[in-house]
Write a structure and sequence with these properties.
Length: 234
């Protein structure tokens, strides 16, 4: 398992804090020694413990290193103050320049929108007109390009749809021809259209009276005969 990260804050337990101090101090002095040997650097490390003890390491005379540090710090402080003044002036100038640039761009934008033209001279108006015309030319050119692209896409899509329509029509005609060929084959429609068979029908004599009609006629004759017999004699 790897070493877990610990939160960098003051260790409250005194014993743990002392143990950690010893370990970290030895590691710091070791790293300082390695830095001095490997990189040929002048290194000086001074550590004060909470009890006031001093631990130090130096690959050279520590007093000479401290004197060199004091001189460097004094020079840096003087030059640093000069650099701070110059930096402050530079940032002030940049701030003013940026404000002026913002105002110029804002005014130019308003003029392009057709506002605040009363303060412009004839030369400035001509310059503004040329700028607007150049912008319109670029806009129209881009618009024409997009229209051409859209028309090409529509033509391409129309050809694709036409080809798909032609293909579907050919498939429909092919299916119709197949169905007609199947219908025209002999014996295929025997089940749907059976041939005429005389045995399935009765012979009908046009001169023969149907049975139900004959029965009705006999009944009428009897009824009429009954009336004849029961009526007065002539």
């Amino acid at each position: 398992m790897g070493r877990g990260k610990i939160e960098i804050k003051r260790i409250e337990n005194t014993t743990s804090r002392q143990v950690t101090f010893c370990k970290r101090r030895n590691g710091l002095l070791k790293k300082a020694y390695e830095l001095a040997i490997l990189c040929d650097a002048e290194v000086a490390v001074i550590v004060f413990s909470t009890r006031g003890r001093v631990y130090q390491y130096s690959n050279d005379n520590i007093k000479e290193i401290l004197e060199k540090y004091k001189k460097y710090h004094a020079q840096t402080s003087k030059s640093g103050s000069y650099v701070d003044i110059n930096s402050q002036q530079y940032y002030q100038q940049e701030t003013v320049r940026m404000h002026q640039q913002i105002q110029t761009l804002t005014s130019s934008n308003r003029n392009l929108m057709g506002n605040e033209l009363s303060t412009l001279s004839l030369k400035e108006l001509k310059f503004l007109e040329g700028k607007i015309e150049k912008g319109l030319t670029k806009v129209r050119t881009r618009k024409t390009e997009l229209i051409c692209v859209e028309m090409e896409y529509r033509e391409k899509r129309g050809l694709e749809l036409q080809n798909e329509n032609t293909y579907l029509r050919s498939k429909i005609e092919e299916n119709l021809r197949g169905q007609q060929a199947i219908i025209m084959q002999p014996g295929v429609d025997d089940e749907n259209h059976p041939e005429f068979d005389a045995r399935n029908y009765y012979e009908v004599n046009m001169m023969e009276v149907p049975p139900h009609y004959a029965h009705h006629q006999d009944h009428t004759e009897l009824h009429l005969g009954f009336k004849t017999t029961t009526g007065p004699s002539t």
